[in-house]
Amino acid sequence: MEMSAEPASNGDTSAAVALTTPVFTPVDAAQAAKNPVQTVESIKLEHQFLRVPLEHLKKTIRANHRYAEKEVAAVLSGVAEVADRDDISREEAASQLSSLVYRLQGLKRKLEDGCASEDLQAQRCRARLEHLEGIDADNIDEWSNTRLKRILVDYMLRMSYYESAKMLAESSNIYDLVDIDVFIEAKRVIVSLQNKEVGPALIWCSENKSRLKKFKSRFEFLLRHQEFIELVRLDESLKAIAYARKFLAPWAATHMKELQRAMATLAFRSNTECAPYSVSTVYFLFVFLLSHSEGMHSFS
């Protein structure tokens, strides 16, 4: 998927994305319904259709599990600490236990929200399976019409017509069959990069770290590199060095040349005319980051 830093012509602010979903026309669907082999082959085209909500469900379950483990471990540690102290007063013990109860209440609220999110993703998986199971000769026209609307919504999202996509999905009652939330999340990150902010993109990278590593993506490194450059531009040399040690050093094995150039910026003023370290080059890096934000909607 390719994204452009320019807003779409209808006023929506995000990157334009090339349509990659294979087009399957109503005529093709009708022919497939009459031929079991063609039906199976047409269903194979729907891998992405099922994968997105399933990946989101898995990610939500993992996140809830990690959070619950962390909070429960902290509470148990706190209880053990109170129990092991012989000199603790009743008031202090009551205060610490109250804080632990408050923490458990926060865990409960978090898990309730997580459970609601899991239910939503499970509902979308179920709706999509039912949609695929509905392809037969008796209702092929209705099924094909629904699929056509799905393709239209997908096209609108990829071309940054978000409001139009929402209206079509809601009016056609196919919200569970399209990935509007995924594109909205990608839009938020892209808009932040257009505003020269890397924070939301780094959060996104943290949430998708394993998949980025699997695809050997440079996106997080580019974000870290840009954040380092911004510290240098602000003449925060000590903070920049500390940042480089913490966040850039782990990339040395694969990006040594770029790291060396980045560290060299410490020797130049922000208004230098030396091309590799000039302000104009720094602004160019944000455009470069936008070009590397392609494919975000496919991550869970």
How would you explain this protein's 3D organization?
With 300 residues, this protein is mainly alpha-helical. It has two domains: 26-178, no CATH class; 183-298, no CATH class. Helices cover 71% and strands 0% of the residues. It has helices at residues 26-34, 36-44, 47-84, 90-133, 140-158, 162-171, 180-194, 199-207, 209-214, 219-233, 237-248, 252-264, 279-291. Helix 3 (47-84) packs antiparallel against helix 4 (90-133) and helix 10 (219-233) packs antiparallel against helix 11 (237-248). It starts with 25 loop residues before the first helix and ends in a 9-residue tail after the last helix. One of its GO terms (cellular component) is GID complex. One of its GO terms (molecular function) is ubiquitin-protein transferase activity. This is CTLH domain-containing protein. Residues 182-239 form the CTLH domain.
